[in-house]
Every structure is written in C-alpha cells, then in structure tokens.
Amino acid sequence: MKVILLGELRGKGGEGDIVEVAQGYAENYLFPSKIAQPATPGNIKQLEERRHVIAKREEKRIADATASKEQLDGKTVKIDAKVGENDQLFGSVTAAQIADAIKEQLGIEIDRKRIVRGGTIKTAGTHQVEINFYREIGAVITLRVADPDAEEEVVEAEETAEVEETAEAAETEESAE
Questions:
Q1: Which terminus of the chain, N or C, has less C-beta within 10 A?
Q2: Domain ranges (residues) in the chain
Q3: CB atoms within 10 A of CB 83
Q4: How much of the chain is in helix, strand and coil states, percent to nearest 5?
C-alpha cells in the first residue's frame, strides 16, 4: 500500500515521501498515529502544492541537525557507575543516563531515542557512542564509564606518589650538600 509520510519514519523516509508499506502496518499504526495518509490522487495533489513548505522545513531540520553535530562531535562525557570485578558494571549504562550526562556536562539537551550504540554498555572504560540527529547526520562522542570510588583512590595514590617523590628529592639535595 502506498502512503504519504507526514513526518520522519526511521528507515522509510521523511515528510512528503511516498513509500510502500504493508496494509496492516498503515491501517493499524501509521494512520491512527497520524504519521502517514493514504496516497490517493487528491492527497498527492495536495502534497504537490505543499512541496515548497516541506522543503523549507527540511532545510531547517538539516541546519539544526548540523549545528547539533558540530556542538557534540568529538566531545567526551563521563558517567559514574558501580564497577565490580573485571571492570563489569552492576547493571548497564542506558541511553537515558547518557542523555542526562550530556545535558549536565555539556549543556546540550538531546532526546534519548536519538542515541544509537552497538549494544548495551556493561563494562567500565571508554566507549564510542553515536547520536543520530536527522537521517544521516550524526555525531560520535566518547563515553568514559568509571567507578567514582576507584577514581578517588587512583587520585589519592598519585598524590601520595608525588609527595613521596618530592620528599625523596629533598633528601637527595640535603645529602648532596
């Protein structure tokens, strides 16, 4: 069944596209959700009259997506999580947690549904996360997952090592004199 999309439908097309879908999918989901309408001759004629308005909206969406991509691409976000043995997390890092961390640390609000990644994040360390803003426009951020308690211990160990090195250097200078 041919339908005219009234909005973006992931994997099928964008607003104003005429696509072929299963009849049950169209009648049970697309039409009631107002995502599409039947591709009748009258609706196609109305679509042709609205093409310039749709093109302007498309340009704005692409410009907004490109601006968002430039803001986020290559940035690093850190999430604290409880880590067990072998760097395994207790649970996993969700898309909602990533979206919250981006908003908190970078000040950019994104929808959690835009976050695409290869499976769930269940280990501590550095992970690459892709965020899809619009169609093929997306950004890749680096996500650091770490245990906040373990990190404090590492910082304390580094500070202790620095103090010890300074003390050893002072003792060496005194004995040299």
A1: C
A2: 2-71, 74-171
A3: 20
A4: 50, 30, 25
> What are the C-alpha distances in Å from 19 to residues 4, 29, 37, 132, 135?
7, 15, 11, 22, 16
Which residues lie closer than 8 Å to 59 by C-beta, 6 or more apart? none
Of 73, 77, 56, nearest to 137 by C-alpha is 73
Token code pair at residue 51 = 């093409």
Gap between the Cα atoms of 102 and 160, Å rounded: 33
pLDDT, tens digit, 9 for 90 and up, residues 128-141: 999 988 888 889 99
pLDDT digits (tens, 9 = 90+) for 141-173: 999 998 887 654 444 444 444 545 544 555 555
Please say whether the structural domain 74-171 has been given the CATH code 1.10.600.10: no
Distance of CA 164 to the CA centre of its chain: 43
Residue tagged 């940035």 (tokens): 75
The CATH H-level (homologous superfamily) assignment of domain 2-71 is Ribosomal protein L9, N-terminal domain (3.40.5.10)
The stretch 110-123 carries a mean pLDDT of 83
